[in-house]
Amino acid sequence: MTTVQIAGKAVPVTSDVSAELTQLAINSSVFRDWANGLEPRFRIDAVRIQSVDLFGSRVGFVKCVATAFVDNEEHKIPGILFLRGGAVGILFEIHCEGALYSLVVRQPRLPVGRALFPEIPAGMLDGSGAFKGMAAKEIEEETGITINAAQLVDLTELAYGDQYKGMYPSVGACDEFMKLFLFREAMTRAQLDGLRGHLSGLREHGEYITVDIVPFEDLWRVAPDAKTLSALCLRDRLHATGRLCLPAVAPAPAPAPAPAPAH
């Protein structure tokens, strides 16, 4: 058994995994961020680490159970924790020939039993806090589109400021938060058609991604995942309340004419 400092208190930690994995877990950013982010109203008396998943040499997920109380009450509160940290999601708003489209990626999602589950592009954060840079990187990895991070609008920051880190998909047991961004761009029909069916993803990370283009007005019916629906809701409500300006997007430049054949 070891101890970890939580709110200035040495909390005993037991573990179902090796001593090496236990130490990696309590030193990881996901565990430290959880422990350091607790409001003072919480009291943690013990933590038991049940499993640790590594992504290479980096801790990805930590599953644990805490003996926890709130407001000095004597009855324990639910303490099951799945710690995985933050992520980013990107809502595409593509303007093409007077119509509006969005982009989804379809990939295997084993927990829900779907081989081509549709969702907006997303990815985990690496703890650096460079949210826009990570979002831009995810766009390129999942769609092949290279963009400038300055083109991204942070919808969650516009909505919540620094009160919350982002949108929380499942707070009953998971610490995950998502920074949701809006990316607006004009494309030619050829560019749009070139994206449809594009295969991407990092195979070494187990990613098998197919890009699809859908009418923007149909996105809510096509992609049933929380980040897609939340990004749509934030975009619409922020715009309706005047907190998000959606100026006209300049048309995509026409492709250069083919050079004349030499005589």
TrEMBL record:
Boundaries of every Nudix hydrolase domain copy = 97-225
List required co-factors: Mg(2+)
> What SUPFAM superfamilies does the entry give?
Nudix
- InterPro entries per UniProt: NUDIX_hydrolase-like_dom_sf (IPR015797), NUDIX_hydrolase_dom (IPR000086)
Q: Which UniProt keywords apply?
A: Hydrolase
Provide the GO MF annotations for this entry.
Answer: hydrolase activity
What protein name does the entry list? Hydrolase
Per the UniProt record, the source organism is Paratrimastix pyriformis
Taxonomic lineage of the native organism: Eukaryota, Metamonada, Preaxostyla, Paratrimastigidae, Paratrimastix
